[in-house]
C-alpha cells in the first residue's frame, strides 16, 4: 500500500517555492525564468505560486530582499567592531566571501546585471561605504591625515573587496581565506602608505619628495 504523501503547510510551501525560484533565477536570470517553470519544478500548479507571491516580480522581490538582509547583516556585523581598522577589514572581507560561499545562488542574483537587482546591490555597497568612511575618518584623524578624504578612500576600499568577490564567484581556485588575505594585503598596505598631500607625478612634485 502506497504511503500517503504529507501535505506541506503554507509556510513550508512558500519556502519551497523560494528555494526553487532562487535556483532558477541564479541559473537563467529573471527574464528567462517563468512562473510555469517554477511551478513545474516545485510540482505545483501556477495558481499556487500566484497565491503566495502575486507573480514573478513579487517572487523575485522577496528573494532579493531576503538575500540583501542576509549579506547586509553579515558585513555590518563585521564593521561594527572595536577592533583595529586592519582587523575590521579582514573580518568584512571574510564575511562577504563566506556569504558568497554559503549563498552562491543569492549572490549571483544580487550581482547580476539587470534593473531589478543591480540597483539594490549598488545601494548596499554605498551603505557599506558610508560605514567604512566613518571608520577611516577616525583613523585618519589619529594619523594626521585629512578626514575629508575618508569617503573617497572608503569607496576605493569597498571596490577592492566587492569586485574581487564577484570574480571569486566564478573562480574558486583560491580559498576564501587566501582571497581575503590578498584583499587585506593590498588595501591595508596601501592605507599605511597614504601621503598627507598626494600629487600626480606628471603634474607636480613627486609624492616621494614630500616630508
Describe this structure in words.
The structure is a single chain. With 211 residues, the protein is mainly alpha-helical. The chain has a domain at 64-192: Tetracycline Repressor, domain 2, CATH 1.10.357.10. 70% of the residues lie in helices and 0% in strands. The protein contains 9 helices and no strands. It starts with 9 loop residues before the first helix and ends in a 19-residue tail after the last helix.
Provide key terms for this protein.
9 helices; Tetracycline Repressor, domain 2; 211 residues; mainly alpha
Describe the secondary structure blueprint for this structure.
Blueprint: H1 10-28, H2 35-42, H3 46-53, H4 56-79, H5 85-102, H6 104-110, H7 118-142, H8 150-170, H9 176-192
Helix pairs in contact: 1-2, 1-4, 1-6, 2-3, 3-4, 4-5, 4-6, 4-7, 5-6, 5-8, 5-9, 7-8, 8-9
Amino acid at each position: 500500500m502506497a504511503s500517503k504523501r504529507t501535505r506541506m503547510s503554507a509556510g513550508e510551501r512558500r519556502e519551497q517555492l523560494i528555494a526553487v525560484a532562487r535556483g532558477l533565477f541564479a541559473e537563467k536570470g529573471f527574464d528567462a525564468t517563468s512562473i510555469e517553470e517554477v511551478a513545474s519544478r516545485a510540482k505545483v500548479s501556477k495558481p499556487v505560486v500566484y497565491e503566495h507571491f502575486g507573480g514573478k516580480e513579487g517572487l523575485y522581490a522577496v528573494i532579493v530582499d531576503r538575500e540583501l538582509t542576509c549579506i547586509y547583516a553579515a558585513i555590518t556585523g563585521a564593521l561594527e567592531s572595536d577592533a583595529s581598522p586592519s582587523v575590521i577589514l579582514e573580518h568584512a572581507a571574510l564575511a562577504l566571501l563566506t556569504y558568497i560561499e554559503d549563498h552562491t545562488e543569492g549572490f549571483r542574483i544580487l550581482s547580476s546585471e539587470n534593473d531589478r537587482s543591480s540597483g539594490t546591490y549598488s545601494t548596499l555597497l554605498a551603505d557599506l561605504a558610508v560605514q567604512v568612511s566613518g571608520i577611516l575618518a577616525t583613523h585618519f584623524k589619529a594619523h594626521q591625515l585629512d578626514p575629508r578624504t575618508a569617503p573617497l578612500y572608503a569607496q576605493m576600499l569597498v571596490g577592492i573587496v566587492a569586485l574581487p568577490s564577484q570574480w571569486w564567484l566564478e573562480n574558486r581556485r583560491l580559498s576564501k581565506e587566501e582571497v581575503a588575505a590578498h584583499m587585506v594585503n593590498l588595501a591595508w598596505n596601501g592605507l599605511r602608505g597614504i601621503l598627507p598631500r598626494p600629487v600626480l607625478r606628471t603634474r607636480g612634485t613627486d609624492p616621494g619628495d614630500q616630508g
